[in-house]
Amino acid sequence: MQVQAGSTTLEVEVHGPDSGEPLLLIMGLGMQLIAWREGLVEQLVARGFRVIRFDNRDVGLSQRFDHLGRPNLMWQTLRYLARLPVQAPYSLRELAADTVALLDALGIAKAHVCGASMGGMIAQRVAADYPERVKSLTLMMTTSGARHLPQPTRAARAALLARPAAPTADAVLDHYVRLFRVIGSPGYPAPEEELRATLRRSLERGGLKSAPGVARQLVAIAADGDRTPLLGRIAVPTQIIHGQADPLVPLACGVQLSQAIKGAQFDAVEGMGHDLPAPLWPLFADRIEQAARRAGMIGA
Fold it and tell me: Which of 163, 93, 164, 80 has the alpha carbon at shortest distance from 129?
């Protein structure tokens, strides 16, 4: 369903009973709500959550911001590497404001929040800037953006910045298959046909039109800078989950988050890269539930 979240129209799906504990799932760069796979959502609903997943602005079925133009990624990358200000069409602060406005539109005063990758960056801002809206926080395969932290591997950076060989559906699909083979979990590789089917569904749902929006989101990440100073303001129970084999956001990024957020609990998952493989869904659901229980909200 389409929900007006402040000035941004977002595509939203809600799963579970109205009486469930609200859990807001925030997905990462260029990823749609369906990247929170149905099997994982079902496990979360079974644990007592009312699960809300949505497309961030500029991807999937949510509002596009094409009027802001497509940023020059090479130029903005050079500015980032030179430690010059990165010029973004919009900010992660605005994406965080979209998220809080979505809670407002759904009539939810306070929610458990889980973010993956860029979604984890947005979740950090929500928890720090809107503490009254967050019950518990789970951060998955994400980073504070501190400049001293290790950067993506050369292969991961090249795969992320590469473009499809041609502007056709098949070429775009092949491009994303190559990307997820590079950044995905080496301990839990998705079968080829399953990966292709999942990515094809994403492209058919709206991914073929998302490239300019992904570029705008990527520049917003670079422009957001180091969020470490914000992390000391996060006081809710926090769970951090990070793959030991993540080539895009290396493990040290998760470690640093766990050290910067008071009382955070940390899982370094062997064999996990930068994706959410099905064999790990029970672990993810358990850790999200544990953070919620630490907040005293489930089963109370």
Answer: 93
Cβ atoms of 216 and 124 closer than 8 Å: no
CA-to-CA dists, residue 50 to 20, 47, 286, angstroms: 4, 9, 15
Average pLDDT by consecutive 10-residue portion of the chain (300 residues)? 97 96 97 97 97 97 94 84 87 98 98 98 98 98 96 91 84 92 95 93 82 92 95 97 98 98 97 97 98 75
CA 262 vs CA 19, 139, 243: distances in Å: 30, 14, 21
Non-local (6+) Cβ contacts of 59 within 8 A are 30, 31, 32, 206, 207, 210, 213, 214, 217
pTM (predicted TM-score): 0.95
The structural domains of the chain, with segments of one domain joined by +, span 2-294
The amino acid sitting at 30 is: G
CATH 3.30.830.10 for domain 2-294: no
Instruction: State how far the Cα of 233 lies from the Cα of 281, in Å rounded to an integer.
Output: 29
